[in-house]
Amino acid sequence: MIHPNNPVLLEVRGLCASVNGIDILKGLDFTVRRGEVHAIMGPNGSGKSTFAKVLAGHTAYQVTAGSVQFEGQDLLTLAPEARALAGVFLGFQYPIEIPGVANSQFLRLSYNTLQAQRGQEELDPLEFDDHVREKMKLLEMSPDFLDRSVNEGFSGGEKKRNEILQMALLEPRLAILDETDSGLDIDALRIVSQGVNQLSNPDNAVILVTHYQRLLNYIVPDYVHVMEAGRIVKTGGKELALDLEARGYDWVSADHEAASHNEVNA
Predict the structure, then answer these.
(1) Residue 98 near residue 149 (C-beta atoms within 8 A)
(2) Where does the record place the ABC transporter domain (predicted)?
(3) Within the chain, what is the greatest distance between any pair of CA atoms?
């Protein structure tokens, strides 16, 4: 459901960013309101994952122009950990393994750090164990995952469920999910999507970065955006994703070029 009267959560204007001296984002504009789900699609190399990582504060990317406001704060001035504390969550396309660190310890430390930031009560190990097991039910995860090292030996689907478990515990204001559907079979896709849907509410927002329309059968977006060459070149409703599935991206490029040509000659 589109929420045109809801407060703006994220306002991106003229964002330009590079990596290793190569320009990737080239004047990107993007607005997200509370309660909305946005899907970003586009061909490889269009800048989708770069945008996600820039929002989260990945240090490999340099912002060269533009502004990003998150709930009235200048997001670009905040360190990655400060962005997380402010309520920005990034679900990785390729979650890393952390050998020797128990999943339960990692999750509890993350949870309690945020609780302290929010001025709320931290949980001791027994209290947290009860809390996290309830959240795991959303994702049909076995409690055995708590005793294993973070993502070590996890399948692709298990790693993605673990990412959404983190999201469930941290309750971010803005969840950015970078190709969460990649590498998932149908059952895992359904379970992960179900978890995301249950965690969405009128006070938060979700940005989905995806190549495939199939994810949007489970998580229905309010807006679908097409990125090309570091810019948003087309925005529509969920029907746009179906058009992309059927027709590819070439027609979007052609339409955008024609519109740009007409503007120049107007």
Answers:
(1) yes
(2) 10-254
(3) 68
CA dihedral 199, 200, 203, 209 (to 10 degrees): 120
96: three-class secondary structure by DSSP: coil
> What one-letter code names the amino acid at 186?
I
- The dihedral built from the CA positions of residue 75, 79, 81 and 82, taken in this order, carries a sign that is negative
Distance of CA 159 to the CA centre of its chain: 15
Closest to 47 measured CA to CA, from 174, 232, 253, 260? 232
Alpha-carbon gap, residue 114 to 176, rounded angstroms: 18
Strand partners, 246: none
Number of helices (H), then strands (E), belonging to the chain: the values are 8, 12
pLDDT digits (tens, 9 = 90+) for 49-100: 999 999 999 999 999 999 999 999 999 999 999 999 999 999 998 899 999 9
pLDDT tens profile 211-220 = 888 889 999 9
Beta bridge partners of residue 28, listed in sequence order: 15
- All structural domains of the chain: 8-98+173-265 (3.40.50.300)
Cross-strand bridge partners of residue 11? 31, 69
